[in-house]
Every structure is written in structure tokens, then in C-alpha cells.
Amino acid sequence: NAGVTQTPKFQVLKTGQSMTLQCAQDMNHNSMYWYRQDPGMGLRLIYYSASEGTTDKGEVPNGYNVSRLNKREFSLRLESAAPSQTSVYFCASSEPAAWAGPFNQPQHFGDGTRLSIL
Amino acid sequence: TQLLEQSPQFLSIQEGENLTVYCNSSSVFSSLQWYRQEPGEGPVLLVTVVTGGEVKKLKRLTFQFGDARKDSSLHITAAQPGDTGLYLCAGAWAGNNRKLIWGLGTSLAVNP
User: Could you give the CA distance from residue A59 to residue A32 in angstroms, rounded to a whole number?
Assistant: First the structure.
């Protein structure tokens, strides 16, 4: 019953460094998402993948790239980390209903990656 | 800009008390989801409401979707310390089904 697994759980980077956050789900869901959660700002969508082979920008995509490697895995890359990207990053997945888009179905979240950029 | 406002922002009560938290918007939603998030973990879905006026119960938690599908409430009866957490509501915008609007949450502390 792993659900959504995120690695790493914690990471400290220096400004300008790059890194990739990994996410994998074992629920055979078609849709996957990357969010960041900041105090006073709530959960904000960075990118999502409605189905394997597609990715779309969310609310705050600048400074990030994503790859939907296969149906199970969806990675988030920071090419040149900035202090403003210090946050808790959550990956989520869902199974869209035939009658509605991906956002009408419950989202299953991982436990997050706590990222600090100095 | 679609906003989903949650109130109160913070709530600290004693075990056994009742409470209600609110989720309000000027936008119409096709569905609304309630999540609870505990420290160090991701949000976990509690319930989804879809029909205007719908009421769903989950043990001591009662969720209601407004008739116009613009607002929702969560009522907890006889709160317990295990109910402590951040309660988030998220609305699937009826405009094009391509966006989930998140509230900032209500942080609930239930003291023994």
C-alpha cells in the first residue's frame, strides 16, 4: 500500500544548483501533479500530467521542468535553484472519471519533499 | 481570479466541543473536496461533495455543499485530539474542469 512515493524527503541546495525530485505511484492512475506548499500561500499547482505523454503548466511553472517518464513516474526538475523555491513539494495522482477532467477526482498525495535553498 | 476562502484560519478548542469550519467562494464548483493534513504528511481526502445541498457524514464529521455549489461547511461533533490537523477544501472549478482551487486551510488544535 505505498500509494505515492516521493524522494528525497529532505534536501538542502545552494543557489544555482540543480536537482530532480522523483515521484512514483502504484495505483495505476492516469493523472499526476506537482504542487508546492508555502505558508500563507496554500497549495499551488506547478505542473500536471493529465495522462501519460502529456504535461501542462499549472499556476506557478516558472523555474521548473517536468518529465512524465511512464505511467507510474513523474519527476520535477529545478535547473538553477533559487531561494524563492524553498518550499515543501508534493506530488499527487488521481484517476479522472470519464465524465470529467482530472481535477474532479480525489487526489492522492505523497508525504512531500522539504527543500531548502541557501 | 477564483478564490476559496476558509474560516476560521486557526481554531483551538477543548476535547468534546463542537465546531464548524467554512469554505466560501463566489465561483460555482462542479465538486468540492475536503482534505486533512497532519504535520509532515501530505493531504488525505476526507470526502467529495458533488450535488448542491448534499450532506455527507463520516463518523463525527458532517460535510455540507451549498445549494448553489459555491460554499461548503465541515462540522465536527465532540472533537477529539485525533482530529487535530489542517483542514483544506478544494473546488473543481465548473468553468472548464481544468483547475482545482485550494483554500488556505483551517488549522485545528483539539486539546485534551
Answer: 15
